[in-house]
């Protein structure tokens, strides 16, 4: 397993792995423009994280792993937290959907706390990205964004 920063050579593969855009809090993020890291096993991407730093906050825009239970997600989050600290960010935050119980559990186990529930935010995001499914895990309707944060006390 090798972890690399996403560079121009890896960018096209990263887009194939995750898709080209992500919508969170009504903002469209282009994977083409975000910093991040990939986990390579052989020549294949098995995990990826992207983030965006603005005004003292660091948003984890995407985190995906195709291999569970090997610590890939945790290693990637740790890299982003380090980058956020280097940029003197106050917090690292992320959004997930209301159906994504596994992700909610994952972030809480890593010290993130629920900050807000943004009612019907995903319903609105579908106007920008119609490919967002209507139902997710266990058939739960996908409607709301849940915001988690990790405060970086100095």
- Overall SS class: alpha+beta
Number of helices: 4
Rg, please? 15 Å
User: What is the string of helix and strand elements?
Assistant: EHEEEEEHEHEHE
- Beta strand %: 35-45%
Helix content: 25-40%
Distance between the termini: 32 Å
Major β-sheet annotation? 7 strands, mixed
Query: Averaging pLDDT over every residue, what do you get?
Result: 92
Total beta strand runs: 9
Oligomer: single chain
Which strands sit side by side, in order, in the main sheet?
Answer: 1-4-5-6-7-9-8
Unreliable sequence segments: none
Q: Tell me, briefly, the overall form.
A: globular
Structure commentary:
The protein has 154 residues and is of the alpha+beta class. It is 26% helix and 38% strand. The protein has 4 helices and 9 strands, in the order E-H-E-E-E-E-E-H-E-H-E-H-E. It has helices at 8-18, 72-86, 101-109, 121-125; strands at residues 2-5, 21-24, 27-30, 36-41, 44-54, 57-65, 91-97, 113-118, 145-151. It has a 7-stranded mixed β-sheet with strand order 1-4-5-6-7-9-8, with helices on both faces. The protein has a two-stranded antiparallel ribbon with strand order 2-3. A hairpin with a 2-residue loop joins strand 4 (36-41) and strand 5.
Secondary-structure blueprint of this entry?
Blueprint: E1 2-5, H1 8-18, E2 21-24, E3 27-30, E4 36-41, E5 44-54, E6 57-65, H2 72-86, E7 91-97, H3 101-109, E8 113-118, H4 121-125, E9 145-151
Parallel strand pairs: 6-7
Antiparallel strand pairs: 1-4, 2-3, 4-5, 5-6, 7-9, 8-9
Q: Outline of this structure?
A:
The chain is built from four helices and nine strands, in the order βαβββββαβαβαβ. With 154 residues, the chain is an alpha+beta fold.
